[in-house]
Specification:
Elements lengths: L30 H4 L15 H8 L3 E8 L9 E9 L9 E6 L11 H7 L7 E7 L26 H22 L8 H14 L5 E6 L1 H12 L4 E7 L16 H17 L1 H4 L5 H17 L2 E3 L2 E3 L4 H7 L6 H18 L8 H11 L4 H14 L6 H11 L7 H4 L25 E5 L7 H10 L4 E6 L13 H13 L7 E4 L4
Parallel strand pairs: 3-4, 3-5, 5-6, 6-9, 9-10, 10-11
Antiparallel strand pairs: 1-2, 2-4, 7-8
Helix pairs in contact: 5-6, 7-9, 9-11
Length: 506
Amino acid sequence: MRTATAAALCLAGTLTLGAAPAATPAADPLARYQYQHLHWKSCRLGPDDTTGKELEQAGAQCADVTVPLDYTRPDGRTITVAVSRIRAADTAHRVGALLLNSGGPGGQTIGDPPWVRKAMKDVGARYDVVGVDPRFVGRSTPLDCRWPSGSMFRGAGGGRAGFDRMVAFSADLARRCRTHAGDLVPYATTRNTARDMDVIRAALGEHRISYLGYSYGSYLGQVYATMFPDRTGRVILDGVVDPARYGPRLLRGTEEANRDALRDWAGWAAAHDAAYGLGRTRSAVLATVNAVQSAASRNPLRLGGHRVDEHILPVVVFNGLSQDNPTAYGDLALAVRDLRRAAEGRAVSPSPWLAGTLDFLLTGHDSAYGSAQTSILCGDVAAPRDPESYWRDLRRAGSRDTLFAPVSNDINACAFWDPPRERPTTIRGDLPALLVNATGDPRTTYRSAGTVHRNWPSSRLVTLRGADQHAVYGVFGSSCVDATVNIYLATGHLPAKDVTCSRPIT
């Protein structure tokens, strides 16, 4: 997941360009969707639409693609999927369309073409770069369960009483989705999103689409390529999800990577003690975090209009550890400083990043994000339904990790969800793709990327060493990674062998 809160694969070296494959409208129930005329228009929704303004300045236009709500009933209810597009400037050497997904699930991608186009450098001129807000996300037909939070994820707390509160919280989130979005929730799945992608492909007039997917977007790409292998072009999966570990409990197994990322951040904070005052050594900074956590477990910490308790504080720290750069590190350091001051009983107005994170977790401002994310996770893979199974996992974790394990092992709303309507996709084992992962990624761990790479002998893995970074290409600033990806986009040929990039020296 790329937000603060929180890949289609190439079967041929070159793309076959041209119109969508011929179909007989009377024989193909999806023909009216595949051959629809897209009305391209300005992406700006009003004077305060920053995303629309950036798209407009980059030369993008936007359209709404009509798709079936239920693909088993294509003549029934329809919804719309919002797309943006920066068209290829080098039409003489045009490759085709590159579809984007920035993860989540539930993350908006419609605003991404400008920065992705910039990261692509000269090769970007050869592609139509297409951002897609998946079904029920962003500017697409919305799904909103009217939650009091933007996330179903919480820490379990330190005892049975806290866990029981999380059982009740999770059950309430599921009830709200049945009540307020029960007509849409059953159709919020990755397989349906992949079907939407194929309608978009056809509506764009493309025989194949290339794909760039980050985090959850890497799983979406695997599903698309498995379902539509003959319609898949060049593919980059950045922050690679192991499909065997994907599902409502996808955070399990990330504890060690997050502990390592926390230690690295603590070392940075210690080196900047003059600015943040959290301690002059790594151990002193970690002791500050532990003290804040202990205080929040005794009594909720007051920060502005919010209360941060044992369920919220671990998620705040977790959310602060996905990006390895001074800005993100400084945001987390300011947040910990604010939390320590609150623990001391001082009046605190939270710093901007912390204020935004608390608004996300403790208000309904981002209810739609959490609603869509949860609906997709629960709709893709069934979760254990017995609360006691989660409690046993939490007890097994014990005192080894009191910060991250209570988040990764906690019960969530999927325990109270209706069973998925389709079985999880069995991903093909012959999928060529360019995989990208940092060794210290605390979200999609390097171990997961290695597993996927071993399962796909035809793939290549680009490794960024020495960074606790989630999402690398065009984000982290590694010229080695970016150049490797761009060569693949330009030629359609994977590297002859895996590529290892060192962290840039700053």
